[in-house]
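Before surveying the methods themselves, let us examine one representative protein, pairing a chain with its fold in token form.
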Amino acid sequence: MAASRIHAPVDVGLRLWEMADAEELAAMYAASATELAGEEPWCGPDFLTAAGQGERVRRCLADEAAEGFVITVSGAIAGHLSLDRIRRDILQSADIGYWVAPRARRHGVATRAIGLAVAHAFDRLGLHRIHATTDLDNAASCRALEANGFRRVGVIHDFALVGGRWRDGRLFQLTADEWRSLSGGRLRTRGGAGPGGFES
């Protein structure tokens, strides 16, 4: 997969994962180890190491049904975003997931990163639909999705086992036609700015 860089306003961008990112990713996650242990129990001890992140990036790069990105703020890695379960059959769809480090939150970083990923999925990958699922209590994530045109389409009961209990998930979706109807295909992010251009 050829590396590409996606730029957005206010120094927020997306870049496809590279093997060289493993050490910086590990340091970012290690700084949030307590949060990840409670909210992302699948992140075991290896997840916090450069070797573990190297293997994670390697698996993603080898998976034709996934694309992994780092979210950057002023060039530094501040989170991750993924397009998973990319379907090239009659569904032409993908799931989107994302996480922003605590130090970069409350600045519209996730909102802008989602907008860039949506443009990439619809314009470059030619997909028809993107799905997202959030915890019912995650109001910030819901706002970031809705700011990019995603619609709430239902609740999935007992969606994920987190913190020892099954939590419900809120399901969102966005289609290419809906996205293109928003300002001619340029999604609005916080502050009214649209996503930036692409570089390969």
User: Anything to note?
Assistant: DSSP finds six helices and nine strands in the chain.
